[in-house]
Amino acid sequence: MLNHVLCYLFNKLHKIESKRIKAVMLEYFSAQDIHETKEPFVSILPDKVTKIRDKRDGERRNCRKLDDIFVIINELDEKLILSKLPIFVSDSQDKMPSNQLTEGDMQAIMKGFSEME
Fold it and tell me: What is the value of pTM for the model shown?
């Protein structure tokens, strides 16, 4: 399925800590991108998964919607049905965030900076 937000998320899942993934996603993707991702994602979930209602208004709406997506993914992972989802792809690297500096050897340095805050 073509979805840049979920493509990025699933590509980085279990490779980078969730907090860092969320921060990059909130900085890069627009509120509209995140909003347009949650509903189609929820619609393809198996019946065994808890459906989260979309009553996310006000400040930090993007963050809460993204948190909802992570809650669903964690539940799918715990129930060992994450692999039953379709594969999410992007048709352009320009539509995906690049965070090479926060991966690999620089990850320890970036973690140190975030702990100093």
Answer: 0.75
